[in-house]
Amino acid sequence: MTSTAPVTTENVSDEIGALRAALGTRLEVVAPALGVDVSGLTPSEQLDRLARSVHESADPASAWLLFVGVTATFPSTADLAALRRALLLATPATAMLAVLERTMDVQSRTHSGLRTIELVSDTVLVDVDFCAKYEHNTGIQRVVRHMVPEWSGDRAEGHRLVAWNQDSTGYRELTAEQVDRVLHWNDRRLPKKDDPVLTDADLRREHVLVPWRATLLVAEVPAFHVCDSLTSIARWSGTAVDLIGYDAIPLVSADSVPNAESERFARYLTIVKHARRVYGISVSAADEFRGFVATLPSQGLSGPEVVDVTLATEVSPVARAAASVVTVDPEAEPVVLCVGSHEPRKNQDATLFAAELLHREGHRFRIVFVGGGSRLATMHFDKRVAKLSASGMKVESHRRLGDSELWGLFGVARFTVFVSLHEGFGLPVAESLALGVPVVTSDFGSLDEIARVGGCLQVDPRDDTAIVDAMRTLLTDDAEHARLLAEIAEQRPKSWRSYADEIWTAVTA
Amino acid sequence: MNQDQTTAEKDLEELREAVLDDWLTVTSNVTDALRDIQQTVSWRVTRPLRAAKTFSRKVDEVGVVPAGRLAAVEVARRLGRR
Lengths: 509, 82
Known about the structure:
The complex is a heterodimer of chains A (509) and B (82).
Chain A lengths: L8 H25 L9 H15 L2 H12 L5 H13 L5 H15 L6 E5 L3 E4 L1 H5 L5 H9 L11 E6 L6 E3 L2 H8 L16 H5 L2 E5 L3 E4 L8 H10 L3 E6 L3 H4 L6 H16 L2 E4 L2 H12 L10 E4 L8 H9 L9 E5 L8 H13 L5 E5 L4 H16 L3 E5 L4 H10 E6 L8 H8 L4 E4 L2 H7 L4 E4 L4 H13 L1 H12 L6 H12 L2
Parallel strand pairs in A: 1-5, 2-3, 2-6, 6-7, 7-8, 8-9, 10-11, 10-13, 11-12, 13-14, 14-15
Antiparallel strand pairs in A: 3-4
Chain B lengths: L2 H35 L3 H5 L1 H16 L1 H18 L1
Helix pairs in contact in B: 3-4
């Protein structure tokens, strides 16, 4: 909320003076980067000189930086195109007017007039926006929260974590609470609390971190409303933008996700077009991005280089400890565990069907489903679980379960089932193997990549009978179960340190 | 540099200063004008509709649960100001 102090001629004059001074300070920051000496000049003289320089150079990166210097916001692709065209139509004498005209709209809409800016050129900026702001920890967040802390030691000086500011117009440094959320998820140093909501007055005085001919690693799939600004950075600012390519599920399996997810991902692909490099989390995920890149020549674009950097398969010591403290009761029914967010492509319905059939065949076991999901996705499933449970089948579905309880379930499980129809990687399979539990999983894509090393029975997830047969085998065939355990015992999971090293080496190459 | 040139330079500098002052005033006033609009009855009565639209957009961006948390924080903040 803005201040409601009475407006007088005096305080308006004070405010304009403060805005003018803040603009001058920002222009002093961008001037050296643009090779212009503005020392001793008034803000209007500074702006005139910088506008003339950018007009003369016609360099898009210079125009991008001047826009940031004037408004303390990152321009959209349309805003920057408009500025560049206005400069091309201007003369040296009218270049400053062109800049003011083309930045007026943004400056009027935002509360950025008193902001300060800092150019970041000598470090890698790592965009961890979602992980910094939210207490949510599924696939992508777990990758980020494992990878980024690995850079805290000798590489701490080489990177800076950034998040979008509250009005999503620029990057800022993380708060102490946000750093804690990203770097110390399993070992929090500060009490958990929601981020404060900033007032307009706070927003006006923010400190903006500006990537300038730097490297920006976008470690998450960014929010819809920042995709255009990120595209503008990737396309025009001279900063190399690298992305971690998790999967293309929202588009290539659009039938299995909400429409908004598909639209968001389509916007994300616009950044991909102009990125330098995409690090696919599996060969399968990388292939999806390669497929997209292969379509780009029809737009006259070459797209990014796509590299396979397969995710780590180890689990944290915390998970290992939580799984090892539980004791298996030899008299109790064997536990079958099915972990994963609840959505159609995860194929939980097929697993539940297989379990029901095996229960009717007379097999004794307890099956536990763990994973959240929208009411729409879970409603019918939960009704079915309740009905089967009432009929005497040992079946449970947990929508919210703490990490330690989840790891404890791995500790008692005889095997896990993860027969997803489409994955970017398949962390539940990797985690199951890392905790020494055999898996029934799919026989293609990224799940096949993980399962190939052993410890898994692979099935066609679209074949219900195959799922039933595999689950029956692991419930009844102790020799086969022991064979898979022996295969798992031979495995050396890839560490998060190795994964983080590979990403770091590629980003800084 | 002759007298005419010096005068012209000075005029140009004054013009630049005036233009920048206007730009700062206008961009600042638009923010003030928005603030005034936000005090009107029509703005206030349509607030629930805008809140619903904002929430819907936030759900698209971050999912239902985080959006709910953000909404709760915002409500707490607003109530706290009363």
